[in-house]
Amino acid sequence: MPLEMRDKCEKCEKPLAMDSAEARICSYECTFCASCTDAMHGRCPNCGGELRPRPRRIKK
């Protein structure tokens, strides 16, 4: 099952492209930008999980 590639940060609503190296996700696919992730000390405010760089999906 593929990841849901959300197109904006859930906190500040900054746009995040599918190929963005800036997007961070938790195991529940909550999505945040790098700036918000840093401000939250790398923890998801929804589930408490670790936020990690999201794999990029390159358009073919």
Could you please describe the fold and organization of this structure?
This protein has 60 residues and is largely without helices or strands. It has a single domain, classed as Herpes Virus-1. Helices cover 10% and strands 10% of the residues. It contains 1 helix and 3 strands. The chain has one helix at residues 34-39, and strands spanning 24-25, 31-32, 52-53. Strands 2-1-3 form a 3-stranded antiparallel sheet. β1 and β2 form a beta hairpin. The longest helix has 6 residues, at 34-39. It starts with 23 loop residues before the first strand and ends in a 7-residue tail after the last strand. The model has no long low-confidence stretch (mean pLDDT 92).
The termini sit apart by 19 Å
Count of helices?
Answer: 1
Series of secondary-structure elements, N-terminal to C-terminal: EEHE
Rg, Å, rounded = 11 Å
In the CATH hierarchy, what is the architecture at level 2? 2-Layer Sandwich
Count structural domains. Answer: 1
Q: Mind telling me the CATH class?
A: Alpha Beta
Give the integer mean of the pLDDT values.
Answer: 92
Strand content: 5-15%
Q: Can you list the strand order of the major beta sheet?
A: 2-1-3
Task: Look up the CATH topology.
Answer: Herpes Virus-1
Number of distinct beta strands: 3
